[in-house]
Design brief:
The protein is of the alpha+beta class and about 375 residues long. It has 2 domains: about 210 residues; about 150 residues, Alpha-Beta Plaits, CATH 3.30.70.270. About 65% of the residues lie in helices and about 10% in strands. The chain contains 13 helices and 6 strands. It has a 6-stranded mixed beta sheet with strand order 2-3-1-4-5-6, sandwiched between helices. Strand 5 and strand 6 form a beta hairpin. Helix 2 packs antiparallel against helix 3, helix 3 packs parallel to helix 5 and helix 5 runs antiparallel to helix 6. The N and C termini lie far apart (about 80 Å).
């Protein structure tokens, strides 16, 4: 009798401690509440003194339904999907209403079993439908989806099959010594552990992914840092067959901004240009801050003219004052096209030559580097 409440309490404590360390993950606290509700449901049903007319069955099964709603809601919350609390509540309410009817109005133990089981199955199946929308295909996410599906099948098929095999139950004395109750005790602990472990592993994977993203991201500008840019850009160069262009941008007179307005103003300018890159860079572009005031953009474009047009649009946007509180500055951009077998370091060298030409031409310029020197252009 203490197996399921003991396991559920341990899981509730584990999820609470996990939430305590990451309070921005509210769904983890929801999972803790779900396992706590499971433990309380078993304690009310199996441990507390019986009430007249078996009325303890109503709060115990209400807790089981609440646990199912909270646990399925926590899974959807992990994937940032909207939780259908209203639909869950309607399914749980209908199950509890049916149980109350077959307990107090027309007593029938078999129908009471089916009422709660079918409600929990419906909640599980609705969760499966929503989880399929995530499109995630890694192993843990697939296991979690299948675990939810098997949970729903368990609640739907098991009571029908066992009641049919055993011919139904007349009272709770025979019920609690039956094959059905034995499978409930076993399957509930197994399902709880599987779902909890899968959710914990999924949380751990997301945390690791977030740490990796943070390690490769420049927090000031919001784009990749140099290491992150080199990793992602090198991978894109290795696999991309369409034409690519590298844009190398340098904020003009940036040292004067720091000297005259202070480093906070310089940080605001860097942050502002990072926002421009994030807003204007097309899909598939790799954006990075590779130096103090130097940015790089590796972008799929069909022609050098398209690369020049993008660079000119970035320059014009930066030439417009970002904000009254941010010192006005401009940007110079060097552009080069990637050829077959080009490495990132060779692209950076060519783009740097074009950038130097733009600086010499008076800054606030865009310069395109071509393989033939007489074809180079500045605008």
């Amino acid at each position: 009798m203490l197996l399921n409440p003991g396991i559920s309490l341990l899981l509730a404590v584990a999820f609470y401690l996990l939430w305590h360390g990451r309070r921005d993950h509210g769904y983890v606290l929801v999972a803790a509440a779900g396992h706590l509700a499971t433990a309380l449901g078993f304690l009310v049903q199996d441990v507390m003194p019986p009430l007249p007319f078996e009325l303890q069955r109503i709060p115990s099964n209400a807790l089981f339904l609440l646990a199912g709603i909270l646990l399925m809601g926590s899974l959807l919350g992990h994937y940032r999907l909207p939780v259908p609390w209203r639909s869950f509540s309607i399914m749980g309410g209908l199950g509890l209403a049916a149980l109350s009817y077959f307990l107090l109005v027309q007593p029938n133990l078999n129908y009471r079993i089916l009422s709660i089981s079918f409600a929990l199955a419906a909640i599980s199946f609705l969760t499966v439908v929503d989880l399929r929308r995530t499109g995630r295909t890694n192993l843990v996410d697939r296991i979690l989806l299948w675990a939810c599906l098997l949970t729903g099948i368990n609640f739907l098929v098991r009571p029908i099959a066992i009641i049919w095999m055993e011919g139904g139950y007349i009272d709770y004395v025979g019920f609690q010594q039956s094959l059905y109750w034995t499978t409930v005790q076993f399957s509930q602990s197994l399902v709880s552990i599987i779902l909890a472990l899968c959710l914990m592993v999924a949380i751990a994977q997301d945390l690791i992914s977030q740490l990796q993203t943070d390690a490769r991201t420049d927090t000031l500008s919001g784009v990749l840092n140099r290491r992150g840019f080199e990793d992602v850009a090198t991978a894109l160069l290795a696999r991309h067959e369409a034409p690519l262009a590298l844009l190398l941008a340098d904020l003009d007179h940036f040292k004067q901004i720091n000297d005259h307005h202070g480093h906070m103003a310089g940080d605001a300018v860097i942050s502002g240009f990072g926002r421009i890159l994030l807003d204007m860079a097309p899909a598939g572009a790799v954006k990075g801050r590779i130096g103090g005031e130097e940015f790089a953009l590796l972008v799929p474009v069909p022609t050098p003219e398209a690369a020049l047009a993008l660079a000119s649009a970035l320059r014009e946007r930066m030439a417009t004052p970002l904000d009254a509180s941010i010192p006005h500055t401009t940007v110079s951009i060097g552009v080069t096209m990637a050829g077959p077998g080009d490495r990132l370091d060779s692209l950076l060298r060519r783009a740097d030559k074009a950038l130097y030409r733009a600086k010499r031409a008076g800054r606030n310029r865009v310069s395109l580097h071509r393989t033939a020197p007489r074809q180079e252009a500045a605008c």
